[in-house]
Amino acid sequence: MGLIVLLVLSIAFIILATAKLKLHPFLALLAAAFGFGIFSGMPLKGIVTSVNAGFGGTVGAIGIVILAGAIIGAFLEQSGGALRLAERALRITGE
Are the beta carbons of 38 and 47 closer than 8 angstroms? Predict the structure, then answer.
């Protein structure tokens, strides 16, 4: 039961840190992961190993998709395509 409460508190921290404190989402997730590990009683070395394994597994699985999305997004922003897409979407859906 204690771990479920800790999980809910971690999620609440992530939401508050990103929405109210304007903390970068990656940093909020990283802080929540370390906080969850510390308060759940894991040894510090185990926390670092778990965070590295989880992050590495995620990046290994979807890293290329994220990289391609970032490159396409940069091209759209620099060419003005992102603004055109937003304007067309607003014409269709309204403000």
Answer: yes
- Copy the structure tokens of residue 16: 């508050």
Three-state SS annotation for 22-84: CCCHHHHHHHHHHHHHHHCCCCHHHHHHHHHHHHHHHHHHHHHHHHHHHHHHHHHHHHCHHHH
Instruction: Please give the Cα distance from 8 to 92 (Å, whole number).
Output: 38
**CB 50: neighbour CB atoms within 10 A?**
15
- Residues whose CB is less than 8 angstroms from the CB of residue 8 and which lie 6 or more positions away in sequence, other chains included: none
Query: Containing H/E element for 9?
Result: helix 2-19
Cβ-proximal residues to 28 (8 Å cutoff; 6+ apart), any chain = 13, 14, 17, 18
pLDDT digits (tens, 9 = 90+) for 11-59: 999 999 999 999 999 899 999 999 999 999 999 999 999 999 988 888 8
CA angle 78, 69, 77 (to 5 degrees): 15
